[in-house]
Amino acid sequence: MSKQENLLDTNQPPSESVIPGIINNRIIPNLLYVAAKIGIADLLGNGPKSIDELAEAVKAYPQSLYRVLRTLASYGIFAENTDGQFELTPSAVPLQSDMPGSLRTWVILTGEDWFHRPFGELLYCVKTGKQAFNHVHGMSLFEYLKQDSEAAEIFNEVMTKFTEPMAASVAKSYDFSGISDIVDIGGGKGTLISAIMNINTGMHGILYDLPYVINEAKVLIEREGLSDRCKLVAGDMFESVPEGKVFILKRVLHDWDDTQCISILKNCRRSISDSGKLLVVEGVVPDGNAPSPLKSDDIRMMVVAGGLERTKAEFARIFNAAGFNLTEILPTKSTLSIIEAEPI
After folding, report:
1. Using CA atoms, how far apart are residues 153 and 148, in angstroms rounded to an integer?
2. Which tens digit of pLDDT belongs to each residue from 174-188?
3. pTM reported for the whole predicted model
């Protein structure tokens, strides 16, 4: 009997399904959101506390809060000791606000109603090929952030916290020693270009982003002492980009569909030196059934932004369409890789 026939044999006892566990675990992100939002990990930073102490501090109903923390503790996030007090565990430490690599703001973002609600419309994405965020809110994510300052503050803080460790990893994973000038396209507040230029002290750079972003970037560039080496240029990458020999784009292309990405890349091709290099810092989705957090990230992009995480072949295709040839993919210590391409 073939393997396929065996699977279809209704007389065979079914193997234990992973589905119930997946369904039951869907509640955990909601519990994490509650704990992060009200700052439980911060309150436990100085030692264990009783549920009554915690409930009083956050103005919560003790029994309900206890049930939330008890469930999280069963997953190793917090622990209830023999005195009936809750305490931090290693898995709960990243929920503290002031810890290096803190995940608190990210947990809060994913649980906020404005961000979370579109995921209830995943079926809409599947049936229409459109992003659910626009369907729910009547505007794109970036338009929404422009009109909601509180949402924008949370979102931008998450992006900054993600960028800091990734920037250091990227700066150390590529040989920038022979590069005298670099253009960071869509470089945000300047975290990546600062990390690169601080290691390569003879390098000059251009940080290019939208006007309101560039205004915010001035603070970091000045704080890093790079004002004399890093030029801040405001503009729209869908219209044009500054001229240069080496361009770097970190987590830019995953925000956009293929047509939009090719438009950005064509603008890069028009401005880059024929002997230049294009460095794209993105996650590269593995082929086949291999597990990868990038596959979940890809669903998030589909729902929220309309972009996507790409495989090596998908990157090669959009590069070729814009006049570049993919030459190398360098892994970093983060989930991102440095994808190198050259002008054709």
Report:
1. 9
2. 999 999 999 999 999
3. 0.86
